[in-house]
Write a structure and sequence with these properties.
654 residues; alpha+beta; TIM Barrel; Immunoglobulin-like; 4 domains; eight-stranded parallel sheet; seven-stranded antiparallel sheet; 20% helix; 31% strand; GH
């Protein structure tokens, strides 16, 4: 017996070695009021650094200031040995406790009053020789507890296609439309989509932010004006307070959302917020604070979504919902009624979800829901100052089985478009039609709008956890990959934590990315190529106002060739372009996916000798190779204008 009325146990967690599951349970005949902490370590190794996440919207990461909230603690020493400890259940009630120097414990919120008989809490502890592996062990064990499979890279329209976002901090159509041109909201959006299609710009979904449904002028934690945009009509949709009714307002869509959906013929990512204090939903459903804990509410919303073209449900304002719903913080099971009801009602109708303004507890809770595909990882707008948070939050979100979502950006912002693509999550622009940057859009997508992306999110290398904890000011180095079997292509982004500090150098070895032997390193911005060995140091400067450097790295095969992929794409070997890669005795074979009406593409790389290309399903337009550098380019065009798969063989001559 761990304590009076409490039984506790420790056992290996299922999955990879290196994780332990700590559990305790209320037994006996009566509820308990004394809140246990288990595990509770009061002997802690010296010199540990920590990473945890603040109980603020978008869960900002913080080093060496361990947070007493429901968050993982990532503890690591100067050699990189790492241990992760976190709640593994009851994420609404759980809390880390201690300072990571004299105490490391997992307990419950002080607001919890009593625990009923049968209440069980669990904790995961995972250890590994390095930080990335510790995350992998921890994430595998956590997902295993909830039978969670990671969301596929193209699990829904937001992950598969480029989209138009009507969000704030960059969305042209955020509480705005072309009223000066005599159009209403619906006609403005219909015209935008029609003009985009006519121009061959293939948006695959449309985000509908909070402007389309009825809201109040009441907000529980900040003052808001009666009208959101004074230039627009004084109607219930033009507010910025609590939700009155989650239905399209006639002032926005005169014939309803279903009619609008037929006109644009795109799936919707549809926003929702907290429930107003005077909402009629409170008369029909159980509402706790600002949160619906009644399955009937969620069934009604999910039915509306399914009948009106809403394919992805976006739950925003999660921070306010938790903060102003005391029962979610203190009563076992109340929080789960909120998120379980949402997830199951949407899943029953084939609708996926995105979380926004989440505390770390919601990110952890999301491991339970296979239809939670994306979680916003930083604040509004994909501005340069969000890169650090996006990169470090990406690993947490990845391990719970979802994809990190960046926010709206202008398509002319090349750095933002690159970062969003490397994140592996949604790429959404907010431009008016006249401002769309066609060149940048097609660095992200094929002609059908499908994103050519990496296999996993851009995540920091271990060295960047060290330099952030030590506050050295060194550039952050993140990497992501495309893996075709045992063949990996790395995409490395190095960037300054503070771009205002001027140019800096970055350095890394290919070995830190898992390469052995010679590699080809391509700088897409400078269009330069190098061929170091895996133990040589790659160096460079962070360039431009955004202070970043980008490199694509591929291994040199036994036949002396390194393929770097489609030079027209940020992620040049992404699976939506290069579906397979195989080494041959004297070269390599690629399978290439062409969308309908894709233009000619250029496949490039390094070769020690001349390259002789052969193609099936495509015409080779040109082949060039620089004998000094080994840099080669093969331009080819699919022989059909329909979607097709092309086989490209690159033989090396002796």
């Amino acid at each position: 017996m761990f304590a009076e009325g409490i039984e506790a146990s420790v056992a290996p967690a299922s999955g990879k070695a290196g994780a332990l599951l700590f559990s305790w349970k209320v037994v006996g005949k009566r509820a308990v009021t004394q809140l246990p902490a288990f595990p509770d370590f009061n002997t802690v190794p010296t010199g540990l650094h920590s990473l945890s996440h603040r109980q603020l919207n978008f869960a900002p990461p913080v080093f060496d200031s361990p947070q007493d909230v429901s968050t993982p603690w990532v503890l690591f020493d100067d050699s990189g040995h790492a241990l992760i400890i976190s709640p593994a259940s009851d994420f609404f009630l759980a809390s880390m406790l201690g300072d990571a120097k004299t105490r490391i414990a997992v307990g419950l919120n002080s607001e919890v009053g009593e625990l009923p008989v049968g209440f069980t809490a669990t904790t995961l502890v995972a250890a590994a020789p390095d930080i990335a592996t510790a995350y992998d062990v921890w994430g595998t064990a956590l997902r295993g507890l909830y039978h969670r499979h990671p969301a596929a890279p193209d699990a829904d329209a937001t992950l598969r296609y480029i989209g138009e976002l009507t969000d704030n901090a960059g969305g042209h159509y955020y509480y705005n439309y072309e009223y000066a041109q005599g159009l209403n909201y619906e006609e403005s959006l219909v015209r935008f989509i029609q003009r985009s299609r006519e121009a061959g710009i293939p948006f695959g979904y449309l985000q509908l932010d909070s402007w389309w449904y009825a809201k109040s002028a009441w907000n529980p934690h900040q003052k808001v004006g009666r009208i959101k945009n004074p230039a627009l009509p004084d109607e219930d949709w033009n507010r910025y307070g609590g939700l009155i009714e989650w239905k399209a307002q006639p002032g926005v869509f005169p014939k309803g959302m279903a009619e609008f959906h037929q006109r644009v013929n795109l799936p919707f990512l549809a926003h929702n917020r907290f429930i107003d204090k005077d909402s009629p939903y409170r008369k029909r459903f159980a509402i706790s604070g600002l949160a619906a804990i009644d399955r009937g509410y969620w069934d009604e919303l999910a039915d509306y979504a399914a009948n009106n073209g809403i394919a992805i449900y976006l739950q925003d304002w999660l921070d306010a919902i938790y903060k102003f719903s005391p029962e979610l913080q203190s009563v076992p099971g109340k929080g789960e009624l909120f998120t379980d009801g949402m997830a199951s009602a949407m899943a029953a109708r084939g609708i996926t979800m995105q979380y926004c303004m989440a505390y770390p507890l919601f990110m952890l809770q999301g491991v339970k829901y296979p239809n939670l595909t994306t979680i916003r990882a930083a604040g509004d707008g994909l501005t340069r100052d969000h890169w650090t948070q996006l990169a470090f939050n990406a690993r947490l979100i990845h391990e719970v089985g979802a994809w990190p979502a960046t926010d709206v950006m202008p398509s002319h912002d090349t750095a933002a478009m690159l970062f969003a693509t490397l994140s592996g999550g949604p790429v959404g622009v907010g431009d008016a039609f006249e401002d769309l940057d066609r060149a940048n859009i097609f660095k992200v997508v094929r002609a059908d709008g499908e994103i050519v992306k990496p296999d996993e999110p851009l995540m920091p290398l271990d060295v960047s956890y060290m330099t952030q904890a030590r506050q050295t000011g060194a550039p952050i180095i993140g990497a992501t990959f495309t893996r075709h079997g045992s063949h990996a292509t790395a995409y490395v982004l190095a960037f300054a934590d503070d771009p205002s500090k001027g140019p800096e150098d970055f350095s890394l070895t290919p070995a830190t990315l898992g390469f052995s032997g010679a590699v080809a390193v391509f700088d897409p911005i400078a269009q330069t190529l190098a061929t170091p060995s895996s133990t040589d140091t790659i160096t460079g400067k962070l360039e431009g106002a955004d202070a970043f450097a980008y490199r694509v790295i591929a291994p040199v095969s036994a036949s002396g060739i390194a393929v770097l992929g489609d030079m027209g794409k940020f992620v040049s070997m992404g699976r939506k372009r290069v579906t397979s890669y195989d080494e041959l005795a004297q070269g390599v074979q690629l399978k290439l996916a062409f969308a309908a009406n894709d233009p000619a593409i250029t496949v490039a790389g390094y070769s020690r000798s001349n390259v002789v290309p052969h193609a099936e399903g495509a015409t080779i337009l040109s082949t060039v190779r620089d004998s000094q550098t080994g840099w080669f380019k093969v331009q080819l065009q699919a022989t059909t204008h329909t979607a097709s798969e092309v086989t490209l063989v690159l033989n090396t001559s002796k």
